[in-house]
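Students often ask why inverse folding is considered easier than folding. One informal answer: many sequences map to the same fold, so there is more than one right answer. In these notes we will look at a single instance of the problem. The structure comes first.
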């Protein structure tokens, strides 16, 4: 169900890649027509291509954007993703650099650096998500990074962080929730711009994604330190950086504002940004891939509110009820 009343009035693009859906029409896989039958493809190259696509989707990048960042041709990248190109070591290094991941992660193994890594991997292999979460919290507490703000009987943090893709309703619902709780409302994107002294688009254009991620982490650290009580609207791609997302999960009570891809697209258009609609089918496919790539990370939130399930007022009431219950506040 669409919820036209849930249009965020102040929620701007949280990172350049979140508005890249309008590039999808120009990022068609040029190699598809030449692709051999699936049985003729090398399984290792197919697995490599799937990892590249998954990492690209998790970071919200179109194929065109990744090709530009990695300084490789879009056709070469398409061949790589579809398992029909035997990519050189140097090309893989460039792609890994553009995706901001170790080359080992791109080729499928980040746990071969030492015997201890191998032993830890063996202990964790095959465990379910709940067990892995407990292990992550225990490691965080052991290393002094805070573990989990909700563990060991501690009350929930009154720093409420809203996560989700652009168009989920973080600004609209976040401001209303902050007013209801009597907390400050902080849009992390604005904090990032204050630190950088320029817009997010300019950060991306002038300094690149690595610099943007540094500003993002710094803005979150400052916000957590300054505001003991707050409702924080986070950029949609924050979950792509493991260190920053760990910081968020450690210190904040998190809520995933979840929406259908069609609602994300419609709400962005309602803000006046019609570019993603210029290539609606390709853009929608790209948006679905981004959501699929990030859903497992968004799903780590303490609570989930479906902003596509009902109009604005009942959606806000559902959010208010869950947060107040979690914070042990009167309804």
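Output (designed amino acids):
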């Amino acid at each position: 169900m669409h919820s036209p009343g849930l249009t965020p009035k102040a929620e701007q693009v949280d990172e350049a890649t979140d508005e890249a859906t309008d590039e999808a029409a120009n990022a068609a896989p040029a190699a598809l027509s030449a692709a051999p039958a699936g049985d003729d493809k090398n399984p290792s190259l197919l697995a490599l291509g799937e990892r590249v696509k998954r990492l690209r989707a998790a970071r919200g990048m179109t194929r065109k954007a990744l090709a530009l960042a990695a300084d490789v041709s879009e056709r070469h990248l398409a061949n790589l993703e579809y398992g029909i190109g035997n990519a050189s070591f140097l090309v893989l290094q460039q792609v890994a650099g553009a995706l901001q991941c170790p080359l080992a992660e791109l080729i499928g193994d980040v746990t071969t650096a030492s015997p201890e890594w191998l032993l830890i991997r063996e202990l964790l292999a095959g465990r379910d998500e709940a067990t892995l979460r407990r292990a992550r919290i225990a490691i965080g507490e052991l290393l002094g990074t805070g573990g989990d703000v909700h563990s060991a009987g501690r009350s929930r943090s009154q720093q409420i962080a809203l996560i989700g893709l652009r168009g989920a309703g973080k600004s609209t619902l976040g401001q209303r929730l902050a007013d209801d709780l009597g907390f400050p409302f902080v849009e992390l994107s604005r904090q990032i711009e204050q630190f950088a002294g320029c817009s997010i688009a300019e950060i991306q254009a002038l300094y690149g994604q690595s610099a943007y991620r540094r500003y993002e982490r710094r803005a979150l650290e400052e916000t957590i330190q300054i505001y003991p009580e707050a409702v924080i609207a986070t950029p949609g791609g924050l979950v792509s950086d493991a260190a920053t997302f760990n910081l968020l999960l450690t210190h904040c009570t998190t809520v995933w504002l979840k929406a259908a891809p069609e609602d994300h697209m419609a709400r962005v258009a309602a803000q006046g940004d019609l570019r993603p609609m210029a290539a609606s089918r390709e853009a929608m496919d790209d948006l679905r891939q981004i959501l699929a790539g990030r859903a497992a990370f968004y799903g780590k939130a303490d609570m989930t509110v479906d902003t596509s399930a009902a109009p604005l007022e009942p959606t806000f009431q559902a959010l208010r009820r869950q947060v107040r219950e979690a914070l042990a506040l009167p309804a």
